[in-house]
Sequence to fold (169 residues):
Amino acid sequence: MTSIVLVRGDITQQHVDALVNAANSSLLGGGGVDGAIHRAGGPEILEACRALRASHYGKGLRTGQAVATTAGRLPARWVIHTVGPRFTHEEDRSELLASCYRESLRVADELGARTVAFPAISTGIYGWPIDDGARIAVETVRATPTAVEEVRFVLFDERAYEAFAAQVR
Fold:
């Protein structure tokens, strides 16, 4: 059974097998978690992402998918990049958000990762309400068969931490 751990802090400082990056579809870096991971991991991550774009992901990574690269200088072995959906009141994109967590765990299993750190995908600039994002994240991780032993949700602020804590209880 996968244990769920909550941490308030910086995902780039987590000593885990794999860090999940809330990437944009270009895979070439951006703001928020994506920018922080690229900055802390160094040019090796960007080089690996460029190689992905030159091969299987010429048009970028689709929302809800996940793919792994080196972690560069981060204290992890791999970065699993996933593209979360933008929140909108006009369309229910919950399944795409759940897919980010499921696909990241699938990739982690393929890599042999036993510890995985996730951010609160889509709850920043993509506007997903934190309470709903936490619900989808925790429910999906609990429902997804995986060999990952520990899922660590690394939450940037107290509000996000409390939203996830309410779901883990």
Remarks:
- The chain has one domain: 3-168.
- The beta strands are 3-8, 16-23, 66-70, 76-83, 115-118, 150-155.
- The longest strand covers residues 16-23.
- The two ends are 16 Å apart (CA to CA).
